[in-house]
Amino acid sequence: MTFEKILVTGAGGQIGSELVPFLSDVFGKDRVIPSDIRLSTADSRFVKLDVTDRAAVDLVVEKHKVDTVFHLAAILSASGEKNPELAYRVNISGLYNVFESALKNKVGLVMTPSSIGVFGPDTPKENVPIETITRPVTMYGITKLMAEYLGNYYHSRFGLNARGLRFPGLISYKTPPGGGTTDYSVEMIIEAVKGKNYACFLKEDSKLPMMYMPDALDSLLKLAEAEDSRLKHRTDFNITSFSVTPKQLETEIKRYYPSFEVTYHPDFRQAIADSWPGSLDASAAVQEWDFHPNFSLQATTMDMISNLRGKQISQTA
Ligand SMILES: NC(=O)c1ccc[n+]([C@@H]2O[C@H](COP(=O)([O-])OP(=O)(O)OC[C@H]3O[C@@H](n4cnc5c(N)ncnc54)[C@H](O)[C@@H]3O)[C@@H](O)[C@H]2O)c1
């Protein structure tokens, strides 16, 4: 049985803050238990949970009779390079605790988002398939790759229904991104809407795969609900909506804000971006669980600006 009691870890983050209302709409509010190491006062359902505390994870899973986990608690790429030890602890020990608790409590499904961070400088740059050279050079990428292998191991060895997909950079406006290398995309749109210019921390031609949050949420649900018999992969599906450079995003934003200016000052995050591919092959997700993104770069930019302004907009150029 799944989706009767759904635990979301890291629920206060960029994805969790939107996944919780999304799952609540689909399955009912009383079936969703948001949790995070940071307590949210806005939602009375929130449970304070540090995933690195095994006993605490067990307690929450047992107490709420959890049958499904969306495990989002993590330290992202740029934050992970600032504190690799914390990234290891949260991304590996935290995941291990969730898998062990899930096994012990016969949890029916554990969703573990992965990332394009699993790729590295030796990975081909374009239309990258799932099975390719993956030699990540960040602690984040190393933990994400290990998480994919751990999920496959728990499935093949113990029958745990672990599933995951490699998110590209995610664009959203409700909660600020949590220290990733693609955060520039969100920041650039927000600054333009505020009427400010933007200093970008990546080079103008750094092409990376991206996705708008509604497509990310839809993808998580589709994979979670996919027929097990259709899945040839489990924890490492590539997904992507579009690929974009900072300059292309700037150009798109200028359709609404013609005087918007971006200057480019690459910092340590440039090396991370350089180690990731520019585009992905998402055909396995299409074949195995009908992945179908709806938002292009143009639609994403328009919807972001529209929501940030709080009203519908029309293009000025
Ligand atoms: N946002 C993206 O662009 C992106 C891209 C690829 C993959 N992902 C993956 O999606 C998942 C969620 O990412 P996100 O963008 O929401 O991240 P985020 O940084 O916005 O949120 C992560 C949340 O985890 C919480 N957290 C940190 N340590 C914790 C701990 N010890 N116990 C419990 N909670 C803890 C944080 O408080 C935060 O609310 C992660 O696995 C991430 O690797 C995200």
Set out the fold topology.
Layout: E1 6-9, H1 16-27, E2 32-36, E3 47-48, H2 54-63, E4 68-71, H3 77-82, H4 84-104, E5 109-111, E6 114-115, H5 139-158, E7 162-163, E8 165-167, E9 169-171, H6 183-193, E10 198-200, E11 208-212, H7 213-225, E12 237-238, E13 242-244, H8 246-254, E14 262-264, H9 269-274, H10 283-289, H11 297-309
Helix pairs in contact: 2-4, 4-5, 6-8
This protein binds nicotinamide-adenine-dinucleotide.
Residues 9-10, 12-16, 36-38, 49-52, 72-74, 76, 90, 94, 113, 115, 167, 169-170, 177-180, 182 line the site of nicotinamide-adenine-dinucleotide (NAD).
What would your notes on this structure say?
The chain is of the alpha/beta class and 317 residues long. The protein folds into two domains: 6-169 and 211-238, NAD(P)-binding Rossmann-like Domain (Rossmann fold), CATH 3.40.50; 171-210 and 241-276 and 295-309, UDP-galactose 4-epimerase, domain 1, CATH 3.90.25. It is built from eleven helices and 14 strands. A six-stranded parallel β-sheet has the order 3-2-1-4-5-7, with helices on both faces. Strands 6-8-12 form a three-stranded parallel β-sheet. Strands 9-11-13 form a three-stranded mixed β-sheet. Helix 1 (16-27) links the parallel strand 1 and strand 2. The radius of gyration is 19 Å and the shape is globular. It starts with 5 loop residues before the first strand and ends in an 8-residue tail after the last helix. The model has no long low-confidence stretch (mean pLDDT 96). The structure holds nicotinamide-adenine-dinucleotide. Nicotinamide-adenine-dinucleotide binds at residues 9-10, 12-16, 36-38, 49-52, 72-74, 76, 90, 94, 113, 115, 167, 169-170, 177-180, 182.
